[in-house]
Amino acid sequence: MITTPLDVVLGVGEKIIDRVFPDKVKQENERAVARTAILSLNLDETKAILDVAKAETEGQLDVNKTEAANANLFVSGWRPFIGWVCGAAFAYKYFIAPVLVTVLSIYGIPFVLPSIALDEMLPILLGMLGLGAFRTYEKVRGATK
């Protein structure tokens, strides 16, 4: 196409008019297209992150199944061990120590029992109890055989 000086002047004039009197509908359409593109990128990124998290979780579940099926107590017994340790600490903190202190104080024996800070251990115990309850729910519902 041959460009004449008149076409150049008209083209520049159109650009000036577009800047001075912008087309609101066109601008909103362009913004909507840009927003859609950004949301699509965010959605793709979120999906990729979720896919990675899913793969990691499935891998950990496979490791857990392998460990639990092992006959060696040092491999498959660590979960029950953690449960027993947390349960014993919980029982000591809320049952054994108060009863022992009460009994000792009744007999006039001054004794101070060591205190256990459960703030670090309680999330582990509650997490294990939650997973145990979920597993029981699965068994009751027949999800596993």
Poorly predicted ranges: none
- Structurally, the number of domains stands at 2
Distance between the termini: 76 Å
Strand % is under 5%
Structural class: mainly alpha
Number of H- or I-type helical stretches: 5
Order of helices and strands: HHHHH
Task: Describe the 3D structure.
- The protein is elongated, with a radius of gyration of 34 Å.
- It is an all-alpha fold and 145 residues long.
- The chain has 5 helices and no strands.
- The mean pLDDT is 77.
- Helix 4 (78-106) packs across helix 5.
- The chain has 2 domains: 1-71; 77-145, no CATH class.
- Helices cover 79% and strands 0% of the residues.
Give the topology.
Layout: H1 5-20, H2 24-69, H3 73-76, H4 78-106, H5 122-141
Helix pairs in contact: 4-5
Summarize the structure.
The chain is mainly α and 145 residues long.
